[in-house]
Amino acid sequence: MRYNGYEYVASATMRGGAVRYFKCKQHTNFCEAKLKLQNDGFTLIKPHNNHPPPLDEEEDNTVIFKRVLKARAIAESTRLHAIYAEEARRHVEAAIYYTWARAESMMRTARRRSVPAVPNNLIGLGNVLGQQLSEKYVCCEQNIFQTILGEENAASIVFACREFVNNLVRRGITEIHADGIIKEIKEKCPVLRLDCQFTPFETFFDLEK
After folding, report:
1. Quick one: pLDDT at residue 208?
2. Would you say residue 125 lies in a domain?
3. Are 208 and 165 within one domain?
4. 108 and 67 in one domain?
5. Is 53 contained in some domain?
6. How confident is the model at residue 39 (pLDDT cuts 50, 70, 90)?
7. What is the pLDDT of residues 67-114, one digit of tens each?
8. How far, in Å, CA of 102 to CA of 40, rounded?
9. Which of 134, 156, 155, 153 lies closest to 145, judged by CA?
């Protein structure tokens, strides 16, 4: 296992696996470095005392993991915890050290700095959504921002998913009733419930998007 450029091997497990200890791989050469792993990540108990980290042509796994998390936090609007969970499955070894508790602050800061300041009116907000954030808020791989209607003092922003609208048309739906109820499912993703009416069957079904 690698941590901060050094290689370690497991040495002990305590409290039913809740606490694990590792020692430097060079312990046979009298290096006394030790690590402790708990839920909040690694803690270096004793430093390395007689050798530098081994040279490695590849970047440390943790550095790569951090870089991927930061890049996705900036580029996407996906919930941060969902991004972390997905990438942790791809970077298992790095995720053992760089836990969600440690990554959350970095990811939130990266996302906050990447988003422009909120404009003072809807016209300005529409311009930001249509230009600076056109690739950030998408549905079915398309920007959900469509246009701005009205003037500065009485403006409206139109959001739409073209695939969603086309799906309604293909189903022959003639009426849509949005009751304003938004619930959260699938990792707390907000979902608006719409009741849609067919013609001529006068039946209803729930379409969630």
Report:
1. 44
2. yes
3. yes
4. yes
5. no
6. confident
7. 999 999 988 878 899 999 999 999 888 888 889 998 999 999 998 887
8. 8
9. 134
- Report the Cα 153 to chain-centroid distance in Å: 36
Q: Does residue 8 surpass a pLDDT of 80?
A: yes
Number of Cβ within a 10 Å radius of residue 84: 21
Average the pLDDT over each of 10-24, 104-118, 149-163, 181-195 and give the range with the smallest value.
181-195
Residue linked to tokens 């942790």: 88
Answer yes or no: is 56 within a domain.
no
| Domain residue limits at 128 | 119-159
Structure tokens, 139: 């549905």
Residue 23 CA to chain centroid, in angstroms?
A: 33
Residue 50's pLDDT band (cuts 50, 70, 90):
confident
Give residue 118's identity as a one-letter amino acid code.
V
Q: How many residues can be counted in the chain?
A: 209
How many independent structural domains does the chain possess? 4
